[in-house]
Amino acid sequence: MRRSSSVLMAGAACAALAVLAGCATSNNAPAASEAPPPPPAMACVPAQPGDPMIGTWYSTSRPKGVAGDYRSLKVFSPDGRMSYTTQLRFGRRVRPALDEKGCWQVADGILTMQTTSSHGEDVDTTDPIYINRYRVEKKSRDRLTLRSLGDGRTLFERRMPPGYQLPE
Fold first, then answer.
1. Which of 135, 119, 116 is nearest to 42 (CA)?
2. Residue 107 in contact with residue 134, Cβ under 8 Å?
3. Tens digits of residue pLDDT in 25-49
4. Cβ–Cβ under 8 Å, residues 109 and 101
5. Which one of 14, 57, 89, 147 has the fewest beta carbons within 10 angstroms of its own beta carbon?
6. In this predicted model, what pLDDT tens digit does every residue of 70-94 receive, in sequence order?
7. How many C-beta atoms surround the C-beta of residue 123 within 10 A?
8. Max CA-CA distance within the chain?
């Protein structure tokens, strides 16, 4: 009888393992190949010829709650592409912050900058963090005043020569 109780115990253990194995394999987690497709590529819209926004724009500011100076460089190309680079300066130390590329356009006095890649990596263009909007309050050949629709900050931009880089 000892032998049959050992067989029964072994059979019960095998049945329990089979049930557990069945639970483990019936997991309905999506396979890596079933990941959602990336968002469609963004198509930049060319600016109107002679648009005064086309060019390289530099600004410095000191946002509330930040101990350093915030510098930004925006490059708006005639084909609708843009690059956007920022850095924070704390005394003599400079920390790069953003290095983004994407598309820009102005419609009804609102500048929209849509990031498509950040630090060389494609981004989810449906994520609102990658869209920046500014009201164009003033624009001239050499100066641009923008008010962020996100945080209300005013940026005073100066036109810089083509190829200008943020100072280090």
1. 116
2. no
3. 444 444 445 655 554 556 899 999 9
4. no
5. 14
6. 899 999 999 999 999 999 888 788 8
7. 20
8. 100
- Which amino acid appears at position 82 of this protein? M
Q: What is the 3-state secondary structure (H, E, C) of the chain?
A: CHHHHHHHHHHHHHHHHHHHHHHHHCCCCCCHHHCCCCCCCCCCCCCCCCCCCCEEEEEEECCCCCCCEEEEEEEECCCCEEEEEEEEEECCEEEEEEEEEEEEEEECCEEEEEEEEECCEECCCCCHHHEEEEEEEEECCCEEEEEECCCCCEEEEEEECCCCCCCC
Give the mean pLDDT of the chain. 80
Per-residue tokens: 8: 């029964």
β partners of residue 96: 87
**Of 141, 143, 165, whose CA–CA distance to 154 is shortest?**
143
* Under 8 Å between Cβ of 164 and 73: yes
- Two tokens at 134? 């500014």
End-to-end CA distance of the chain: 86
Q: Is residue 80 within 8 Å of residue 107, measured between CB atoms?
A: no
